Amino acid sequence: MNSIGSSAKKSIDLYLIAGQSNAAGYSTVSDLEAAYRWAPELKSGFSHVHYAGNARSDPAGARYAYVENREFGWCQAALGFGVRNDSYIGPEAGMAKALSQTYNSETGRHAGMIKFTHGGTSLLDSRANGNRHGNWVSPSYAKDLGVEFSDRVPTGGLYRGLLEEVRRQVEALYGYGGFTEFRLKGLYWMQGEGNRMFLSEYRKAFTYWANDIRKDLTAMIRGITGGDACGAEELPIFVGTISATFSLENIDTEAELNRPFIEMQKNLEKTVPNCFTVDNSEYAMCRWDADKNEAVVLGTDRCHWNQADMLEIGENVGKAMMAAGVGKA
């Protein structure tokens, strides 16, 4: 994958990706040629859409032992930025296709995606669900809970990790990309599968999270630029809903657990300013077979979308961002 050339002396619009496994990219590339037919640039790289970031995961059997980091410096957006190896993808692939309609050689505009994600993690402060390596709890939510928020504890570890990832990649734009200015344009938040049973608490935690991430990004970016927040104050946040058929355990999982959570996610935009919904709910991961009394897997597995759906979902995210006007010059 080609690095951003030092001759690219233009401004760049930045789009952030955060969340758990369906943001990290656990969808396997099952048909490489089909992906290249869908978007040929996924093979060679999009000339004006760039990527950097970390898709983190816990190795099977070692969930609480260590973390696998899949870190990329700035390069052209292409296929294969999911977890483990190039055979996995997240929403960034489809997003790149959608963004390329605005950011291309004809317009001369550049976009960059910065991803920081970790599979199997929580927005809430449960000690389960991967919290040995941290969770997404924000400072104000931690204060509300009366728990410590510092580098000494897992609480908020991923929240702090996201800020650090953005800081490092923004600074790298100056040092390696040749860009002299940037704007933060949007953030895609794909998370919640492990918190489905806590609707009210999730709503509260996310409201804190959205307010805090804007405030802390603003302070951090101003520190880098010497004063300009570059759009962080009112950063648009795009909430991706979970699948209605995520991890079907029985015939009632969809109606009693998944869909109530999806409805809560859709209503977040009514209470959180500059928040939008990307409805992923009807992209099926499973189908319940009543005759066999079991779930039939339609995704990569029962918890993650397949290749075609993940590509389309990512494209939907990019289109939603453009439709909301965040791609305007």
Whole-number average pLDDT?
Answer: 92
CATH topology: Rossmann fold
Strand content: 15-25%
Secondary structural class: alpha/beta
- How far apart the termini lie comes to 27 Å
The CATH class turns out to be Alpha Beta
Superfamily at the CATH H level? SGNH hydrolase
Largest sheet: 7 strands, mixed
Number of strands: 11
Overall geometry comes to globular
Using only CA atoms, what is the Rg? 19 Å
Strand order of the largest sheet: 4-3-6-1-7-8-9
Describe this structure in words.
With 329 residues, the chain is α/β, with parallel strands linked by helices. The chain has one domain (12-323): Rossmann fold, CATH 3.40.50.1110. It is built from 9 helices and 11 strands. Strands 4-3-6-1-7-8-9 form a 7-stranded mixed beta sheet, sandwiched between helices. A hairpin with a 4-residue loop joins strand 10 and strand 11 (294-297). Helix 4 (92-99) crosses helix 9 and helix 7 (199-225) packs across helix 8. The longest helix is centred in the middle third of the chain and has 27 residues, at 199-225. The two termini are 27 Å apart. Residues 1-8 have low confidence and may be disordered.
